[in-house]
Amino acid sequence: MNGAAAAAAARRKQQLEREEEVETAPMNTDDGYEYKILRSAWGSFRWSSSLRAALDHEARAGWDLFEKLDNNRVRLRRPVTCRAQDAELHQDPYRTWVGPTEGMMVGVVVLGIVIVMFTIIALVNLLH
């Protein structure tokens, strides 16, 4: 990826984050609820079974679906009174990712590219 493409990708990511913070923020934050965005780098929320599994996991901490933003992001909310039980949970009530993160995906892709390159180099050296 060249510098211009990387800069464009960084700007797009910042724009999405700004949209999440500003445009999807509830109008009244004093309504006794707290909100979070749960992300899936693989877009797994397009499948109802994956979405249901994530929502069932989050429900243990009191979170419920507020809105589905797209196949990569859902917005959850829970009453602030649920914080009192957070210490008893066997999960992070404030997790923001389901499955591998974007950074992990990049690492897997880069590793795959390196493996393919070394395999090609090894094959070329064997043939000569």
Record keyword descriptors for this entry.
3 strands; 3 helices; elongated; 128 residues
Structure description:
The chain is an alpha+beta fold and 128 residues long. It has a domain at 32-101. It contains three helices and three strands. It has a three-stranded antiparallel beta sheet with strand order 1-3-2, with helices on one face. Strand 2 (64-68) and strand 3 (73-79) form a beta hairpin. The protein is elongated and about 70 Å long. The mean pLDDT is 86.
In brief:
By secondary structure, the chain is of the alpha+beta class.
Give me the secondary-structure topology.
Elements: H1 3-22, E1 33-39, H2 48-59, E2 64-68, E3 73-79, H3 102-127
Antiparallel strand pairs: 1-3, 2-3
Helix and strand pattern: HEHEEH
Number of discrete helical segments: 3
Oligomer: single chain
Report the structural category: alpha+beta
Question: Helix coverage percent of residues?
Answer: 40-55%
Low-confidence stretches: none
> Average pLDDT across residues?
86
Spatial order of strands in the largest sheet: 1-3-2
Backbone CA Rg: 20 Å
Main β-sheet, in a few words? 3 strands, antiparallel
Spatial shape: elongated
- Number of β-strand runs: 3
Strand content: 5-15%
* Span of the ends, CA to CA: 31 Å
